[in-house]
Write a structure and sequence with these properties.
The structure holds 2 protein chains of 2 kinds.
Chain A lengths: L25 E4 L2 E4 L3 H20 L2 H17 L1 H7 L3 H15 L5 H5 L1 E2 L6 E9 L2 E5 L7 H12 L3 E5 L6 H11 L8 E4 L3 H10 L5 E3 L7 H8 L5 E3 L8 H5 L2 E9 L3
Parallel strand pairs in A: 5-6, 5-8, 6-7, 8-9
Antiparallel strand pairs in A: 1-2, 3-4, 4-10
Chain B lengths: L2 H8 L26 E3 L2 E3 L4 E5 L6 E6 L3 H19 L4 H17 L1 H12 L3 H22 L3 H4 L6 E2 L2 E5 L5 H14 L3 E5 L6 H13 L6 E3 L4 H9 L5 E5 L2 H11 L5 E5 L5 E4 L5 H13 L11 E5 L3 H12 L20 H17 L2 E3 L15 E4 L6 H4 L6 E7 L2 H9 L6 E5 L3 H10 L4 E4 L18 E2 L12 E2 L5
Parallel strand pairs in B: 6-7, 6-9, 7-8, 9-10, 11-12, 11-16, 12-15, 14-15, 16-17
Antiparallel strand pairs in B: 1-2, 3-4, 5-19, 10-18, 13-14
Classes of the chains: A alpha/beta, B alpha/beta.
Chain lengths: 265, 493
């Protein structure tokens, strides 16, 4: 007798757990029923991201780099699953290499982007990069894995926590990524992944008062409305590319803090 | 109390005495009766105008233009023309030399500008003379040197100018904010349309004469005056590639909404409600000077003013007592007098806003203290004010007052200080006073603010990046970081 396979239920990834949508709804994508997140799920995800921020942002940069490298390992070991859910093996390999590239940036940022400032007076003055806080990422529709990772990982590298909305038409790679994240050492809540209709979720993220920055790379056509809503709490807006790697993509989600102290005896 | 302090306490203070008046001569400034807009290297007759006054005396100083959308468009066209045909073509080292010239001329004419700044804005001459002017000149000098070194500031990114920058500046440091805006914009190779604040247009208009002396090509810098309608016209104007705004969070949000979806670059330097945190091991007399400098500098018209004082509970009484005693020695009055510490409130509207918020503080239950001082009869004045018994929820602890008004709260532990300091939508600046070095760095790491002053306050320097977290805005001014908003780069690595 042929064995009946055990199918996967495709769920959200919030606070390190895999809940169904609070709405109890799903939608069909890539031949599967996928959770259709609601406004309540958005709020839960933002709360989880905020709660996770002190731990992730407070890690040493060296440690954060190691955790991101571990994530690359976790993606590599699932290569064949990811290959099935993306455009293929090449996309997966580029994704892994990109994560490794960013992992190496974590403990270089302060030296490349920070400064010691020669002020005219007896003061020691320096500027350091710090994470912006909770970042909402609207992942591009394509490529399903590399697009999401290209937007997500620079945000993480800088020490931010994330609520990401997966590609609506190709969400399965994002869900697979959630499983890789859950088995890496990325603390629960650092990355929260929502699947569903982007046009239902993005406005709540854009107007959420506890989200500090918004990556609108995946917001086709709707960016103006989202950017308008984002002004309610002066969110940083990032319009990126679906397939890039750059330290400036990290810098877009950093704040610069300048500290002064007198020099004396 | 030490023996010396006890002695001083017993020493009788003469009841009535005063410094002799020491007014700075104002004839160094000669004003025209009326000004137009400085567009394309010449003066454009305004279709509408208004009178700009001295807030210390309410005396009219000059008629200035209220730029319409058409006037703004003319300025943008002039800036575009200058950008396309000339400015972006001249070599970067020549561009640098224009900026060096401007810095030098500002230094040479600094007293004239200082007097004008004080006349039109109401700030004490000792501040405009010793802070605003030297810093404005230093900004031009600093950014001049960057003009031909951009490749080193941004390696592998091929930095290029953005184009025409629209810049809208506030009334608290009129010339200094002009320098913060124009110097990096020009160093990066852009051209500029700048609008000074409605109440303080004169130093920007006099700056046009500096540009003439520096022989800066026509149209590279254009200056239009007017109120918020003019600012809105700049934000909406076709052909402006980048907006830089310093001012209130409310207007900043409106600008961000207006630019949504346009792809125009934007930097915002907005309001603040900074915590100035005093630990029990701080050098108290120095800390009190820092508190005074933090909130009464420039009448508290400072976005990064230390308007919330957080005092560790164990030293609450001595700090409040020392502070109150120090307030009685602040000299409030004629801003042109060289001994004046606190000048005039910048405008009638701002005075009304301060009065309204102070009244709300009293109404909500805070205890008010103002030192005895005689305020001039004409002009806009507000005595240095301290509120004690303030709860976190009071409006005076939440809203930016932008006046000489301090709210005092207390804390017990460093954790509580951090939590209270960060409990605001703003994040521009913060102060920490303690003798313990490791605590300074621990606090500096946790304060969500763009500038942290430790054992000092309200220090500025052209090489030092300045700007906000959260609703205090985004982008940095000063330092290498201050060039970035005025440049565009190649996509990725």
């Amino acid at each position: 007798m042929k064995r009946l396979p055990v199918r996967k239920t495709y769920k959200l990834f919030i606070g390190g757990a895999f809940p169904r949508s609070e709405s109890g709804r799903t939608y069909e994508a890539e031949g599967q029923n996928v959770a259709r997140a609601s406004r309540k799920d958005v709020r839960d995800a933002v709360r989880a991201a905020r709660a996770a921020l002190p731990k992730w942002a407070g890690m040493t940069a060296y440690n954060r780099g190691q955790v991101l490298y571990r994530l690359a390992e976790m993606i590599e070991t699932r290569s064949s699953e990811f290959a099935d859910l993306s455009s293929g093996r090449e996309e997966v390999e580029r994704t892994v290499d990109r994560v490794v590239w960013y992992a190496g940036w974590a403990d270089k940022l302060a030296q490349v982007l920070g400064s010691s400032n020669p002020v005219s007076g007896p003061y020691f003055n320096f500027t350091v990069p710090e994470p912006t806080g909770v970042v909402a990422v609207l992942a591009p529709e394509e490529p399903p894995l590399l697009g999401l990772v290209s937007r997500l990982v620079p945000v993480l590298t800088g020490g931010n926590t994330v609520v990401a909305v997966a590609s609506e038409t190709h969400p399965l790679a994002a869900i697979e990524l959630a499983e890789a994240l859950a088995t890496s050492d990325v603390p629960g809540g650092t990355v929260n992944l929502l699947t569903g209709h982007a046009d239902e979720l993005a406005p709540w993220l854009a107007s959420h008062m506890d989200v500090n920055a918004l990556d609108v790379t995946g917001a086709d056509g709707a960016a103006a409305d989202l950017e308008r809503a984002a002004a309610d709490n002066v969110k940083r807006i990032v319009r990126g590319e679906p397939d890039t790697q750059s330290p400036w993509d990290i810098a877009s989600f950093l704040e610069f803090k300048t500290v002064w102290h007198p020099v004396g005896q | 109390m030490t023996e010396l302090e006890r002695k001083q306490d017993r020493t009788p203070v003469p009841k009535e005495w005063a410094y002799a008046p020491a007014p700075e001569a104002r004839d160094i400034v000669s004003l025209r009766e009326r000004y137009g807009h400085f567009v394309g290297g010449g003066w454009l007759d305004p279709s509408e105008s208004y009178t700009t006054i001295s807030p210390a005396t309410e005396e009219p100083l000059a008629e200035v233009g209220q730029a319409t959308a058409e006037d703004v468009q003319a300025a943008v066209l002039a800036a575009r023309e200058a950008f396309e045909n000339g400015w972006s073509g001249i070599s970067a080292s020549e561009r640098a030399k224009y900026l060096f010239r401007i810095a030098r001329i500002l230094q040479e004419r600094s007293r004239e500008f200082a007097v004008l700044e004080t006349l039109n804005g109401g700030k004490p001459i000792k501040e405009s003379r010793d802070v605003d002017l030297p810093l404005a000149a230093a900004h031009f000098f600093y950014y001049a040197g960057w003009a031909d070194k951009l490749e080193y500031a941004f390696p592998n990114r091929r930095p290029r100018p953005v184009g025409v920058a629209g810049q809208i500046i506030p009334w608290n440091f009129p010339l200094l904010m002009l320098a913060w805006k124009i110097a990096p914009a020009l160093a990066a190779g852009n051209t500029v349309v700048l609008k000074p604040a409605e109440t303080t247009p004169l130093s920007a208009l006099l700056f046009a004469d500096v540009l003439r002396q520096a022989e800066l090509p026509a149209g590279v810098v254009n200056i239009v005056t007017g109120d918020g309608r003019t600012g809105a016209a700049i934000v909406q104007a076709e052909g402006v590639d980048k907006i830089a705004f310093t001012g209130s969070t409310e207007v900043g949000k409106a600008i961000q909404r207006e630019l949504a979806g346009t792809g125009k670059k934007l930097t915002l330097e907005l309001g603040g409600k900074a915590a100035n945190i005093i630990f029990d091991d701080a050098a108290l007399d120095q800390a009190v000077e820092g508190i005074v400098n933090g909130i009464y500098f420039n009448q508290g018209h400072v976005c990064c003013a230390g308007s919330r004082l957080l005092v560790q509970e164990s030293i609450y009484e001595p700090v409040v007592e020392k502070l109150k005693r120090r307030l009685t020695t602040l000299r409030v009055g004629d801003p042109l007098d060289k001994n004046t510490d606190v000048g005039a409130i910048n405008s009638k509207e701002q005075l009304a806003r301060i009065q309204e918020l102070v009244a709300s503080g009293e109404q909500e239950g805070a205890e008010i203290y103002q030192p005895p001082c005689r305020l001039p009869e004409k002009g806009y004045w507000f005595a240095p004010t301290v509120f004690t018994n303030v709860a976190q929820s009071y409006r005076i602890a939440q809203e930016e007052i932008f006046g000489p008004v301090l709210s005092i709260l207390t804390f017990r532990t460093p954790e509580e200080a951090v939590e209270k300091a960060n409990n605001t939508p703003y994040g521009l600046s913060a102060g920490v006073w303690t003798e313990k070095g490791s605590r300074i760095l621990w606090m500096a790491e946790r304060l969500r603010a763009g500038v942290v002053w430790a054992n000092t306050y309200n220090r500025f320097d052209p090489s030092s990046p300045f700007g906000g977290y959260k609703e205090s805005g985004f982008g940095r001014e000063g330092g290498r970081h201050g060039l970035e908003p005025y440049l565009q780069f190649d996509g990725s690595e």
